[in-house]
Amino acid sequence: MRVLGIDPGSETLGWGIVEGDGSRYQAVEFGVVRSSPKDVFSKRLARVFNGVTEVIDTYRPDFLSLEEAFYAANAQVALKLGQVRGVVLLAAELSLIDIAEYSPRLIKQTVVGYGNAEKHQVGEMVKILLRLSSVPKPHDAADALAIAICHFHHAGTAERIKNAIGGS
Fold first, then answer.
1. Closest CA to 130 of 22, 28, 3, 32
2. CA distance 162 to 156
3. Residues with catalytic function
4. Whole-Å CA distances, 168 to 31, 65, 116, 159, 163
5. What confidence score (pLDDT) does residue 156 get?
6. With the CA atoms of 26, 88, 159 and 155 taken in that order, what torsion angle do they form, in degrees rounded to the nearest 10?
7. pLDDT tens digits, residue range 111-158?
């Protein structure tokens, strides 16, 4: 199974590809899609869409694992993040990829063991879990890898439950 994790952002969107068999996994590649804050927002959305589509076309993931929208003190920021998430979901849907969404708290809980973990803690655990020589940079890419790792843990559990119920 190959999972594309996405940490959505309109200026820097993190992505990470993790591949594995359900019990073991490894990083394939990671990076970011950058957009200029000087560009009109619609142009930034197009850059996100094209960047995510390029990653999908290059790495052919089976799943897209995306961070859910979270509460933001600034409504404008929350709306823009929602639009970024929308174009990411559209890119995955048009590519016929299964989609899973996870809350930031669940991602941190799964990867670090603590739902209020800080970014540096997430990065360090991603490094350890994927047996990398250093913490992935920038932190958006490390977060994207954490989102993909989260999917491995929760998709595997869901599959085992489904098999247990079906096997009863």
1. 28
2. 10
3. 7, 67, 140
4. 43, 30, 38, 14, 8
5. 60
6. 50
7. 998 888 888 999 999 999 999 999 999 999 999 999 999 998 888 655
How deeply is 23 buried, as exposed, middle or buried, from its count of CB atoms within 10 A (0-12, 13-18, 19+)?
exposed
Total residue count of the chain as it appears in this document: 168
The C-alpha R_g of the chain, in whole angstroms, comes to 16
* CA-to-CA separations, 159 to 18, 55, 103, in angstroms, rounded: 18, 26, 20
Q: What angle do CA 66, 32, 143 make, to 5 degrees?
A: 45
Phi and psi at residue 116, to the nearest 5°: -110, 25
pTM of the model: 0.90
User: CATH for 2-167, among 3.30.420.10, 3.30.930.10, 3.90.870.10, 2.30.30.90?
Assistant: 3.30.420.10
Average pLDDT, the chain: 90
Amino acid identity for residue 10 in this structure: S
